[in-house]
Write a structure and sequence with these properties.
Shape: elongated
Largest sheet: 2 strands, antiparallel
Strand order of the largest sheet: 1-2
Structural class: mainly alpha
Helix content: 25-40%
CATH class of one domain: Mainly Alpha
Order of helices and strands: HHHEE
Mean pLDDT: 87
CATH architecture of one domain: Orthogonal Bundle
Length: 99
């Protein structure tokens, strides 16, 4: 078990912007030590044959054609920060699809 000192707990609490009562320090010391022990155990696992992934599910984003189906109402256009020719102007966003 990693030996976390009282000062270690104080520093961690400060970094996490937590206010810990003095009588709670032993509990935090024990819990954080247990977490670090678990991380140490997980570090020993062989992950060399596991491929990297960004998400647990292999989902694809459903895309549709970028076509105007009905013009926005005047009321809606009045709330938009930037419009031109009755269209909303938005920053350009490009997503690259992995192949």
């Amino acid at each position: 078990m990693p030996n976390l000192t009282h000062d270690d707990i104080k520093k961690i609490a400060n970094l996490a912007k937590l206010s810990i009562q003095e009588e709670d320090f032993p509990l935090y010391q024990q819990n954080l030590s247990n977490i670090l022990d678990l991380v140490k155990q997980m570090d020993k696992a062989d992950t060399s044959k596991i491929s990297e992934m960004a998400h647990a599910f292999s989902l694809k984003q459903r895309l549709r054609t970028d076509a105007i189906t009905s013009p926005p109402s005047r009321e809606l256009l009045e709330m938009a920060p930037v419009i031109e020719a009755d269209l909303f102007l938005v920053p350009k966003v490009i997503e690259k699809e992995k192949s």
